[in-house]
């Protein structure tokens, strides 16, 4: 098992505040933040990953959301909802272990011609910009864990059956989970 480290809040705020200056890094496949984060800006947590956290990269139109939601949930099955609301966790994962996945799934390159759109896109997919649940479902990796966590049902033959349904179309995920009522397990399973 691997202990999980987080970025300190000051580093997350600094990183988010410098998106415009770092745009070229967001257009690159090279993981860059782990080389820039000072050791005093990392927090070692007592939380351990149950499995290795490896993402499947999207290819040929297959976004791999279902596979990756299952992988992240299996790696962090005991993450509490309070822990899962922490922007430091998701910022670190989008900029480190999940970088290759993020670059393929949520490429900022498509906004190269409009710097303002690129910055807003990066802020919404690579960070948690506000304390609302909706922001957690916009972040490229947090959304995977939350979808799997809310839909995981160990009583089913396939405990991730509902996860697959939710992630089968992005519109379904957005219309259900981005509304407060969709984060109620009873409502979600009933739907």
Task: Please render the helix and strand layout as text.
Blueprint: E1 2-7, H1 9-17, H2 23-26, H3 33-36, E2 42-49, H4 65-75, H5 87-95, H6 99-105, H7 115-126, H8 133-136, H9 142-151, H10 161-166, H11 170-177, H12 185-190
Antiparallel strand pairs: 1-2
Helix pairs in contact: 4-9
Structure notes:
This protein has a domain at 63-191. It has a two-stranded antiparallel sheet. Helix 4 (65-75) crosses helix 9 (142-151). The chain contains 12 helices and 2 strands, in the order βαααβααααααααα. The chain has 191 residues and is mainly alpha-helical. The radius of gyration is 16 Å and the shape is globular. The chain has helices at 9-17, 23-26, 33-36, 65-75, 87-95, 99-105, 115-126, 133-136, 142-151, 161-166, 170-177, 185-190; strands at 2-7, 42-49.
- Number of E-type strands: 2
Radius of gyration: 16 Å
- Sheet with most strands: 2 strands, antiparallel
Please state the average pLDDT score: 87
Distance between the termini: 36 Å
Low-pLDDT regions: none
Helicity, in percent? 40-55%
């Amino acid at each position: 098992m691997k202990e999980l480290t987080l970025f300190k809040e000051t580093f997350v705020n600094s990183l988010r505040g410098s998106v415009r200056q770092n745009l070229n890094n967001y257009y690159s496949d090279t993981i860059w933040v782990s080389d820039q984060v000072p050791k005093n800006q990392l927090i070692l947590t007592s939380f351990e990953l149950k499995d290795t956290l490896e993402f499947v990269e999207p290819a040929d139109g297959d976004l791999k959301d279902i596979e990756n939601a299952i992988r992240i949930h299996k790696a962090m099955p005991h993450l509490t909802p309070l822990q899962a609301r922490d922007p430091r966790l998701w910022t670190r994962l989008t900029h480190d272990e999940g970088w290759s996945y993020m670059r393929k799934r949520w490429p900022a390159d498509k906004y190269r011609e409009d710097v303002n759109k690129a910055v807003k896109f990066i802020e919404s997919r690579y960070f948690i910009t506000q304390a609302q649940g909706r922001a957690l479902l916009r972040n490229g990796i947090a959304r995977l864990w939350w979808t799997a966590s809310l839909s995981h049902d160990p009583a089913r033959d396939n405990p991730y059956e509902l996860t697959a349904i939710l992630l089968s179309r992005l519109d379904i995920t957005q219309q259900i989970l981005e509304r407060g009522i969709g984060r109620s397990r009873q409502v979600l399973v009933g739907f």
